[in-house]
Protein 1
Amino acid sequence: MIVKAKRGKMKSINLILLLLLGLSFSVTLNAQDSTAAQAYRDQDYKKSIELYEELVLQALNEKKESAQLYYNLGNAYFRDNQIGKAILNYERALLLNPGDSDIRHNLRFAQSRIEDRIETAGSLFLTNWFHAVRDLNHSNGWANLGVVLFILLLIAIGTFLFVRILWIRKFSFYTGLVLIVLILLANVFAFDQKKERIHRNYAIVMTGAARVSAAPNENSNTLFELHEGTKVRIRNTDGNWYEIEIANGSVGWTSKDNVEVI
């Protein structure tokens, strides 16, 4: 009995310590966030960048990646005229919270400042529709919605099985069919967004002029140049080289030093 009591007491103490550590981290994060925000308001953008970079690193170490921190860091970089890094952080924020209109607005504004103007290759209507609807919410939001819809489906099934009124049974039946389709869509959207977050196969050009070659070596012919802030898709990797594709479908190889993965 005494041993059990001690174990229970130790578990309680450990739980309290964990809660206190979490609270301490949260308080420290909030305090530093306030300091970084104040530096931004004081137009000391370099100090704000330094503080927000530390906050982002802390959040990553704690596995608490934050769209808000990336967004604030992007704003600080933009004000400091570091357009490539601003776009990089806006894109990272958008990856975590694709439905945020402020992030989208600031990203578009920053993209209007880059040198490259690349025509986007045509894509299927269904593909555009899929991404437009998917990006109305983030992966956790779609997953939570899927759970709510599943509960409603169970209610609809229960109503269909146990209620004898004909019109209610019909309504429950067709409602259930619609809910099944919505559940499938919610899960597909959540899975697709999570896959994008995990694989991270897009990058931003971080140098003033990035050479894109026909093959992954320095002696290969130059196909074209890309400039700071341009978004590329990573198709393949070979040593210190990425095979990239730009919005118009053109493909080539560039050094990993020229880009940073979103």
Protein 2
Amino acid sequence: MDLGIRGKRALVTAASKGLGRGCAEALADAGVDLVINARGAEALEATAEALRAKGVQVTTVAGDITEAGTRAKVLEAAGAVDILVTNAGGPPPGTWTDWSRDDFIRALDANMLTPIALMQALVPAMTDRGWGRVVNITSQSVKAPIPVLGLSNAARTGLTGFVAGTSRQVAKHGVTINNMLPGIHDTDRAIALDTGVSKAEGIDMARARAQREATIPAQRYGTPAEFGAMCAFLCSVHAGFVVGQNILLDGGATVATI
């Protein structure tokens, strides 16, 4: 399918690895020029070289997108982008009695306030031009909370509420905002969570992964490539009637009728 976005320009944050890279690769395959950001400069440049091999222009800005200085540099490099994909690593697991106010502030900065700041900076120009796409990578936890990920549950649900209202205000201008809710995918985040299970239960990593795979009806982890394919579709000309939605990509793990 021709996604109709060849020659568009996109900003993808946390794009050097995992789900962010999966989205960047799918957009590059569709002919979209990219501005990509991540904290690690070496991994970011390696990703950029792989993306340029697909025949698109790629600009890199290394740094922590949750920091105002980095965000300013990223926005300057991005300019008038047509597509925004927001992504940031999730906060660590833990127990609700152990989290301080500072823990919540860090989670909110990364997984709620930063994507909101990027939308506030870039969406107005999209509405002026009459076309734009925003995809926020959140989590299945906004549909069904994950007890050990309470910081993520709280911050990402806040972002979901913001998108619910804002998306319906900008849709008339040809701009769509939607969220993608990943379950367990084969990324560094999955490895970190598997490691936590391994240590907590005194089992090896293979068994920890097998236990978590068994909780997924698809009986496997998702891949960044299939996640990226959905992202690219939501950014396409074919998704103009998809507004303010929360798209689960979790292999059926979230048990819900709606």
Protein 3
Amino acid sequence: MEATVKFTFSALIGVSLLWGVGPAVAADSEPATSSQSETYQLRYRLKPDERIHYEVTHVAKTKTRIGGVEELAQVHTVSEKVWEITGVSDEGAMTFIHAVDSVQMTQQAGDADEVRWDSRSGEPAPLLFESVSQQLNKPLSTVTINPRGQELDREQHGGSVATLGMGGLTIALPEEAVAIGYSWSVPREIKARGEAGEVKVIKARDTFTLNQVQTGVATIKVRSEILTPIEQASVKAQIVQQLSNGTIRFDIDAGRLLSKRLDWDETVVGFQGANSLMEYRARMTEELVTGPVRTAKR
């Protein structure tokens, strides 16, 4: 059971930096009641030689109580990720290189001193963040997607493939033009370890709903649902960070994500014994950067 606790804490480190490096999967459309007849086609429209920057902020607090001993772990990460569009085919397939240019990281666990690091400062990274520092300003992956955001090809260049919440760099968009109130679902799998150390595959589903469209911007709600019954609290403690509940803003005309906000507020009782408790509170935001982009000092 000790491994479960370590998994929960270690997942906080760098997870927001590399968020979303897993593949997106196909969406299963599910029509919902809508009072509006106007429809909107949601498509990615990336252009060759573009460099698209996003600022990703992840704030998380994990409190555990085991045998009457309480411990608090906190993390605050701000990273600058970039997509470099290298080509667009005649069929509309878009290829881009995904990288992270800079990061500011703060972490504190229990009574230990707070550890801070800003990659732009030019200072060497603390040992805790050394693996993250080695991945900055380097291609993490080269990805090809179709206009619906589905991955056609991926070349991983090394580094972590940890994901937080939704499993893809992009969101899977519906095949047809949809009206406000329409929902579509994306199935995925989450892996966790059981009490005996075995790998368990948990089936889940992210459901997206087109909530509104205003001045060319679509607001999309997303909510995760676990489909596999989970009997072990230790397994649930591992997957709470992989659930997606929040809001996405998508620019219909420009064909790209404008912003994303995901929130977590989870409590798991008995994850390591009858009197144990884990509380996980977190927020992740991703914003398109339209002004000058900050860069790390050399």
Protein 4
Amino acid sequence: MDLGIRGRKAIVCASSKGLGRACAFALAREGVALTLNARGAAALEATAAEIRTATGVPITAVAADVTTPAGRAALLTACPDPDILVNNAGGPPRGDGRAFGRDEWVAALDANMLTPIELIKATIDGMIERHWGRVINITSITVKMPITELALSNGVRTGLTGFIAGLARQVVRHGVTINNLLPGSFETDRLREGMRGAATRAGRSFEDQRATAMADQVSGRFGDPDELGAACAFLCSAHAGFIAGQNLLIDGGHFPGTL
């Protein structure tokens, strides 16, 4: 299927690895020019080079911390008028919410709620003026199914979801859609990091911990990041203009709910 977005311009945050990288690749395969962002310059440049070689699309790499005003300014200077914005950031630290102080909560808010909001605020009016735009926020299954050891994520990602619920319904009449992707367990560095920590705490091997975690998945496996990337590309497509304000759970059926 031709997604009808060849020649569009996209900003993809946290796109050197994992889910952000998969989204960038999926958009590039559809002919979208990319502005990629991550904090680590070496990994970011490697990903940019790989996507250029594979797809031939124009790519600008901006190594910056977008949780800061300076980082966001650098990103928006490189691409001031994106047609597509993919907000993504690594999740906040694991732990019991009662153990975190104000600084940890503020850092989580900055990374996973306020930064996406600031980037949306900076780009949404241009999309409205051009009568076309797509915003995708990669949040988490925790929005639907809180996870005890992910207290910070439970709180701040749900806050972003509430903000989006209102804004998406204000802008859809202008041809601009905003939707959220809620990933479950995907084969990423963050998943492996979490399993290593759990293995250490339990005094067991990483391999045993991984097998246990996979057995808990009703699908019997973890997600492939490219599966989420493909979903992102479709929601950014010309065919998805009537999908707005939605939270698409991509978890292999792990969430045990009817709705």
